Amino acid sequence: MPRLPRIRSRHLTPLALAGLLGAAGTLHFRAPKYYDALIPEALPFGPRPWTYLSGAAELACAAAVAVPATRRAGGLAAAGLFAAVFPGNLKMARDWRGRGVVARGVAYGRLPLQAPLIAWALKVSRDAR
Fold first, then answer.
1. Nearest-CA neighbor of 21 among 79, 107, 73?
2. Residue 123 is inside which H or E element, if any?
3. pLDDT tens across 70-111, in order?
């Protein structure tokens, strides 16, 4: 049986981030109604263009992080994107405060998750060669 090439852990981290971003970006197009509800009302043009724009941004960041030549810029862009969507997480927490315990836990749990996501993206950018 042929041996598979070993993948070093420094390659897994950016690929995992690219996978997360790619999956999230795809879901913006597959289930936009869910993401529409996270768009703050203060933004112009209604929620759907912002849902699609943020999904496209996640897909672009995923592609940039996946390619070693663009990984540094992709990591920085992903960190900026994670910071930019934080108001949507705040809106979700506010909107879901009257729901059940599990739903509130999901909504409130997203808030502190942004910090490690930003740190992860910055690490991927820093570690890029």
1. 79
2. helix 101-127
3. 999 999 999 999 999 999 999 999 999 999 999 999 999 999
